[in-house]
Specification:
The chain is of the alpha+beta class and 222 residues long. It has helices spanning 2-19, 24-31, 37-44, 49-59, 63-68, 119-125, and strands spanning 82-84, 89-91, 94-101, 113-118, 132-136, 151-155, 163-169, 172-180, 186-189, 198-200, 208-218.
Length: 222
C-alpha cells in the first residue's frame, strides 16, 4: 500500500511539473478539477490516469513518463537518418523504410537508401509499415512547405481525403495538393504561388495515378 502512495505522489509531482506549478491546489485549478482532488487521489491511492492522458495530449509529453516515470518527458519524434539500405527492415525499436528519389523512382527497381524511424512514433501515428516508403522531393512547387531535397513519408494505401499526394502524371512524378471538386473534377494545387493550379476534368482523372498520400515531412536544417 505504501508503494501505491509513493506512486500517486510521484505522478502528482510530475503533473505539476508539466503544467508549471508547485502546489496541489494550483494543479487542480490548471486541470479544471476541484481544489481537493489531488489530495483525494493520494488518500484513496488512485492513479489519475484519465487526467494524465489529457495532460499528455495537451502538452505533448510521454504518458510512460507521466504515469510510470520511465524515460524522458518528451515524446520521441523521428529524425531524418538516411543510410545505405533498400528494403523494409524490422529492427525492434526502429523500422527502416526504403528511400527513393523522385527523379529516378519510375526507373529504379530498388532504392539505394533507407530511412530509419522509431517504432513508437510509427505506432502512435498509425502508419502502415509495409505500405509506406520515403521519397526525396525534387523541385520547389510546394515551397516553402516542402522544399527541394526534403524527404516525405508516403503512405501507398488508397485515401479519399484531400491533401498532399505524390502523383504520376504522364512520364513524371508530381507533388500536388489534391482537392476533389463536385462533379469529379480535380484541382492540383501548389503551395508555391508562382505555379498555377492544374485543373483535371472529370473525364481525364483516370490519367492521374495516385502513388501515395504524403503523411509526414522530414528535413535537415538549412
Amino acid at each position: 500500500m505504501e508503494e501505491k502512495k509513493v506512486l500517486v505522489q510521484a505522478i502528482v509531482d510530475r503533473m505539476k511539473e508539466v503544467v508549471g506549478v508547485t502546489k496541489d491546489v494550483e494543479l487542480a485549478e490548471a486541470i479544471g478539477a476541484s481544489r481537493s482532488q489531488p489530495a483525494v487521489w493520494k488518500i484513496r491511492e488512485r492513479v489519475p490516469f484519465a487526467e494524465c492522458v489529457n495532460l499528455a495530449e495537451k502538452f505533448g509529453v510521454s504518458l510512460d513518463w507521466l504515469v510510470l516515470g520511465r524515460g524522458t518527458p518528451g515524446i520521441e519524434e523521428p529524425e531524418l537518418e538516411l543510410h545505405e539500405g533498400s528494403l523494409h527492415v524490422d529492427g525492434g525499436d526502429y523500422v527502416e523504410f526504403p528511400a527513393f528519389d523522385m527523379r529516378t523512382f519510375l526507373e529504379a527497381e530498388t532504392p539505394s537508401q533507407a530511412v530509419r524511424m522509431p517504432r513508437t512514433w510509427l505506432q502512435r501515428e498509425g502508419i502502415a509499415i509495409e505500405e509506406t516508403i520515403a521519397m526525396r522531393v525534387a523541385g520547389n512547387n510546394q515551397s516553402p512547405t516542402v522544399g527541394d531535397g526534403d524527404v516525405v513519408l508516403v503512405d501507398r494505401r488508397p485515401h479519399d481525403v484531400d491533401g498532399m499526394y505524390l502523383l504520376r502524371m504522364g512520364d513524371g512524378l508530381r507533388l500536388r495538393r489534391v482537392q476533389r471538386m463536385h462533379g469529379g473534377e480535380l484541382h492540383l494545387r501548389n503551395d508555391n504561388p508562382i505555379y498555377a493550379t492544374d485543373v483535371i476534368p472529370a473525364d481525364q482523372v483516370d490519367s492521374i495515378e495516385f502513388i501515395g498520400y504524403c503523411y509526414a515531412l522530414f528535413r535537415h536544417v538549412r
